[in-house]
Amino acid sequence: ELDRKQLYVEALRCDRDDANAYGSLGDELAAGETVKLHDGRELVNKQLYVEALRCNRNLGGAYNNLSCMLVAGEIVRLDDGRELNKKQLFVEALRCNPGESYASCNLGAELAPGEKVQLEDGRKLDQKQLFAEAIRGDPENSYAYLHLGLVLAPGETARLHDGCVMDKQQLFIHGIHADAVKKTLGVVALAITLAPKETVPLADGRWLDSRQLLYDALEYRDTDAGTDAGIDHAAAIERLGEQQAVVQAFANNDVKAFAV
Predict the structure, then answer these.
(1) Kind of pairing between the strands at 35-36 and 117-118
(2) Closest CA to 250 of 239, 237, 233
(3) Distance between CA 76 and CA 86 in Å, rounded?
(4) Of 48, 57, 122, 210, which is most buried, counting CB atoms within 10 Å of its CB?
């Protein structure tokens, strides 16, 4: 019996120009993991995404997932000679799939405050607009709510495409409710917004303060691992910016370090 990786390898034995098989095989590999193809090549996921784009330069998911594999400042050379960085790859992903939620979210996370990027359709969008686009593309994309909340100033609100107006706290809560599995960063971000002794309601009816939220985040952290193909976690964590002490305490299981 063959597992998913082996099935994609077999698909490439039958057709070595199957773009979707290259891309799907790349999705199955962990960072740094290699897979041996029938022609003898041993490839990591970045190389598989490059191969997918060699076969089909309009495969949006391959651009998005390849960009998520790159570190800041890294450039990848594609088979057609193009040399693209993380932002440019996400723009290409949106050229192929306009409005795609994860590519919009990831591109927004790459921008600096006030920076705009021009899309294929001519629009120039900043972070907030891209995160709002991501929510419009998928109202259940918890990371889009998280990112949008993180870039709002205290007291600032954002208007979504459905007319809803939300502040930071409301965005974090909505993101947690949108996805009960991939919510660790959202819970941490929500906890940071609370004043001492302040509580917020969750979907399960509980009212929790910051320390209780962080205990929840610790409980869910292991569940989050490995569930987020196509999401650039490094950018999400970096958005916590001045809260690095909070993030470090969270990483060390030191919930007592949080003031309540």
Answers:
(1) unpaired
(2) 237
(3) 9
(4) 48
